[in-house]
Amino acid sequence: MYKRWLLGSVILAVVVGIAGCGNSPVAVVNGVRITESEFNKRLVRNFGRDTLSDMIDRQLIKQMAEEEGLTVSEEDLNKEIEETKKQFPTEQDFIRWLASRNMSEEEWREALKMAMLTRELALKDVKYAEKDLKAFFNEHKDRYAVPTLVSLSEIVVASSKDAQEVLAEIKKGEASFGDLARVYSLAPYTKARGGKRREDTPLERVMPQPIRVAANKLAVGEVSDPIPAEGQWYIVKLDDRKPAREAGWEKDKDRVKRDYEGAHAKPLRSLLDDAIEKSNVQIVDPRFQELNEIYMPVPTDMPEFGPAGAKKEPAEEAPANATGESGS
């Protein structure tokens, strides 16, 4: 549910972020200007309908939450922000993620707040006791078992010779593994992070397969010998290992609660349909008139035509040969 609002924010940032009109150029191609008005016209044509629909949906959700007396406190929002940021290895990774989506942190904050408000509405009528959560846990126990998790750093080079030279540098101890990764590694994503791969990766998902085999044998802090894989050479360091564990109610009950709520939450489409049913949404711009079909409430009581109180007679059954042709 959060993803819908975050996606809407991306589109909104693209369209609104360049709002304006005029003949000033946004680019010049070999002396030919691409004007701001041409650029905006293309954006409205390609993204305008989705952006307007997203903005209407947001207003409907906000108004519905206000009617229900539901709010998102700054304390809860800040807590959710911190939890979300923990999914990124570093603050810089989070900033790059925002930049890749053309969003400021304030825009993302508002999108997250909207997602939380939507969740409040979706869970408004979800009631449960601990026995319900325990039953859900027992039914989905395999979901909560945790496999062996590893955190790895890597240096990727082109040849065995290069790998041996880097390994010799590591053994000298004059520079850290991370510093050497930033200098020598050919893997762009991990190179920028001092060689670090994503933390707490299930061992069974570590790729390529020779790296997984090596990671399973290394002790924490140990560096591997050069490993050939997929046409390159890897040197990996095991930064951390967390052993596998079975599911346990006490350890997993917070996650069980989230999953239970997610399984029983009212779908966003149903929330919006409920809001539309009792709202008056008018699409004024002629370019987006087809949205009226989405936001026009469907009458619940269809009128009956004919004399008041007239009783409808059951229709006669059609003959087997309705065309009147003979069966011969």
Write a short abstract of this structure.
With 328 residues, the protein is an alpha+beta fold. It has helices at residues 2-17, 36-68, 74-85, 91-100, 105-122, 130-139, 160-172, 177-184, 188-191, 209-217, 249-264, 268-277, 292-295; strands at residues 25-29, 32-35, 149-157, 201-202, 227-229, 232-242.
Note the topology.
Blueprint: H1 2-17, E1 25-29, E2 32-35, H2 36-68, H3 74-85, H4 91-100, H5 105-122, H6 130-139, E3 149-157, H7 160-172, H8 177-184, H9 188-191, E4 201-202, H10 209-217, E5 227-229, E6 232-242, H11 249-264, H12 268-277, H13 292-295
Antiparallel strand pairs: 1-2, 3-4, 3-6, 5-6
Helix pairs in contact: 1-2, 1-5, 2-5, 2-12, 6-11
SSE pattern = HEEHHHHHEHHHEHEEHHH
Q: How many angstroms separate the termini?
A: 63 Å
CATH fold-level topology of the domain at 2-126: Triger factor/SurA peptide-binding fold
Over all CA atoms, what is the radius of gyration?
Answer: 30 Å
Strand content: 5-15%
- Provide the residue-averaged pLDDT: 86
Strand arrangement in the largest pleated sheet: 4-3-6-5
Backbone shape: flat
Indicate the CATH class of the domain at 2-126.
Mainly Alpha
Low-confidence stretches: 1-7, 9-21, 308-328
The secondary-structure class comes to alpha+beta
Number of helices: 13
Give the name of the CATH architecture of the domain at 2-126.
Answer: Orthogonal Bundle
Largest sheet properties: 4 strands, antiparallel
DSSP summary, beta strand count = 6
In helices, the fraction of residues equals 40-55%
